[in-house]
Amino acid sequence: MSSPAPRVPAPSVEPNAVEMDLYEVRKTIYPRAVHGVFATWRWAVIIFTQVVFYGLPWLVWNGRQAVLFDLGARRFYIFDLVLWPQDFIFLTGILIISALSLFLFTAVAGRLWCGYACPQTVYTELFMWIERRIEGDRGKRMKLDQQPWSARKIGLKAAKHGVWIAVALWTGITFVGYFTPIKELVAAIPSRLSGWETFWVLFYGFATYGNGGGCASRCASTCVRTRGSSR
Q1: What confidence tens digit (pLDDT) does each residue in 77-130 have?
Q2: Which domain holds residue 128?
Q3: Residue 11 domain-assigned?
């Protein structure tokens, strides 16, 4: 007959034991500015991508906008290339090749894409640069947030978010400018925009503000700074 299993004594509980939460309250992260070769390369890529994105709709090619996806006229202009509805198969092929190229690049060199050219990284870096220009470096931002609310603090915070909103709205206008001639679009602001133009300007602008400004304000910004500080 087997002997009974020994009893394991229950852990003693100290009378003055203190309960601890499993989750800690989120703390604000104040990233430092990163300098060096890789940070310089990142800014070079940011400047290049933003010059292309914001400048391409304003480029005139043979008397018209160089890149324009005119959905109303059912014509897509890409420099000298003009695609009609019957040529949609070619546009589909271009989009498929672009998507596969993106998948291949992210699989082979995903860190390069995420660290240098991903839109969220680009706009987070851009919005944090605006924050540093208005509120100061890491130490000044920490002191500013610890101070009680005052006219100066409210002014700095309002100026920062105002510039963020302006950049976000201009990004939305530029995005819609690829589907509506951008000169006509800008001339129609703010009273003569159509419903769908207004929707997409605000939607894309809000997405830019939420991604760029949100990551710059929350601890999500550490993903960018961690990559930079490890170099």
Answers
A1: 888 878 777 767 777 777 788 888 777 777 776 677 777 778 888 888 889 889
A2: 37-57+115-229
A3: no
